[in-house]
Amino acid sequence: MHKSSKSARAAVWIALIVLTALTYVPIIVMLSMSVRNNGQIFSDFWGLPSPWVWENYNVAFKGIGRNLANSVFVGGTATVGVVFLSALSGYVFARLRFPGKEFFYYLILSLLMIPGVLTLIPLYVQMSNYHLLDTWWALFLPWVAGGQVFGIILCRTFLEALPNELFECSRIDGASEFTNFLRIAVPLSYPILITLAVLNLVGNYNDFIWPLLAINGEANQMVTVQLQKVGMTTSGLQYGPRMAAYVLSCLPLLVIFSFGMKYYISGITSGAVKG
């Protein structure tokens, strides 16, 4: 029995290692193709670069450098708005009493049942009527408004689990509700707020459909859309620059997860336990 248990564990570990290795195959292929030209790729797809074509990264950066900055700036700004408003609204629903609180909360909750694709046409018409198309406001406002739905639910669930005595003692000392929010609720909610920030920033950064519809000019366009134009020449698609652009576009997300992973895991764990 003991030997069979060890064999089963070994089989599981082998399976996990194989599956993990397979998930890295596309990434390795992307990195390899990013420093090769079409001739090398078509003649020996699985071979090593010879020579290494680093010029692909120069071409890729010229093609998406500005758009990469656009995505980081607009997505990051919208994320700040989502986190602040979600935390503030979550505090209101968790700690304050007012008529219709549960009704409005479940009204917000019901928005999760509406697929985002159903709102594309109404949202496009609305932005057109406001004359905001082809501006960053057409991205910023929908991202902030849409990101709050999940954020309010997450923040309310977390803040409701905090001891009420903390806030009562502060009120006795004369603190206002906004002071309680800034000095008690926000510091204690750092893990869940960083989790919300990471989820929103990744979602905004990876959004493709809405920027494609809302932004026409290349100067204001997001990197996800601009990627489709990198490497396009009169002789056809150059895969090397395209793959190099994919690599560059991944770097901001790698930085985000590198610095926020500790708090992200902590926030996910806290939300699971407290929910």
UniProtKB/TrEMBL annotation:
Cited Pfam families: BPD_transp_1
Residues that span the membrane, as ranges: 12-35, 72-94, 103-124, 136-159, 180-202, 243-265
One GO BP: transmembrane transport
Bilayer topology term: Multi-pass membrane protein
Residue ranges occupied by any ABC transmembrane type-1 domain in the UniProt entry: 68-260
Gene3D superfamilies listed in its UniProt record: MetI-like
Primary site of residence: membrane
GO (cellular component) term, any one: plasma membrane
Keywords linked to the UniProt accession: Cell membrane, Membrane, Transmembrane, Transmembrane helix, Transport
CDD domains per UniProt: TM_PBP2
Compartment(s): Cell membrane
PROSITE patterns, A to Z: ABC_TM1
Family named by the database record: Belongs to the binding-protein-dependent transport system permease family.
Name of the protein described by the UniProt record: Carbohydrate ABC transporter permease
